[in-house]
Amino acid sequence: MSPSMLVKYGTHASLIEAKNTLYVAERTSIPIPRLFAAYAYRPLDRDIDDFGSVYDTYIFMEFIEGEDLGKSWAKYNSTEKQIISTDLKKHITELRSLPAADYIGSVHKGPVTGVILEWSTTSRGPFKSEGDFNATIVDDWRMARSR
Questions:
Q1: Tens digit of pLDDT for each residue in 80-124?
Q2: Residue pair 64/70 in contact by the 8 Å Cβ criterion
Q3: Is 22 helix (H, G, I), strand (E, B) or coil?
Q4: 49: number of CA atoms within 13 Å, CB side?
Q5: Distance CA 23, CA 94 (A)
Q6: Helical (H) or strand (E) element with 40
Q7: Is the pLDDT of residue 56 over 60?
Q8: Record's InterPro entries (predicted)?
Q9: Structure confidence at residue 12 (pLDDT)
Q10: Which of 92-100's residues contact partners 24+ apart within 8 Å by CB, and which partners?
Q11: What residues have CB less than 8 Å from 111, skipping those under 6 apart?
Q12: Where are the alpha helices (DSSP H) in 1-118?
């Protein structure tokens, strides 16, 4: 394995993450790790209640040396913090400038991946409207409260 490649794997790695990486790389100038390959490997005999996928997913991507900003923030002076904040604001603005999809879900009309529908037994989308999305959240909340 090359020191310039990283393999993310396991039940909590997701092909949606790989699709999102490609989407951002193709449509923005935001510096992100390059994706080399991604795949999910066969259904496994796994308890679905472990909150992971029943597939093992592998994402081969560029390894970029760096520090976790949350852990290193205190070591920067105010000028450095301002530069970092300006860069982050630029990247967020660029992400927000991407055209909105005609559905609520993940890239390529995939399901909603946030924790809001983590235990959904009805649908995780994609949803055609905000009303459909909100109705599913309410239904799931009611179902969870009745358990």
A1: 999 999 999 999 999 999 999 999 998 889 888 777 777 666 678
A2: no
A3: helix
A4: 0
A5: 13
A6: strand 35-43
A7: yes
A8: AGP_Transferase
A9: 75
A10: 94/28, 94/29, 94/30, 95/24, 95/28, 95/30, 98/27, 98/28
A11: 16, 105, 117, 124, 125, 126
A12: 15-27, 69-72, 78-96
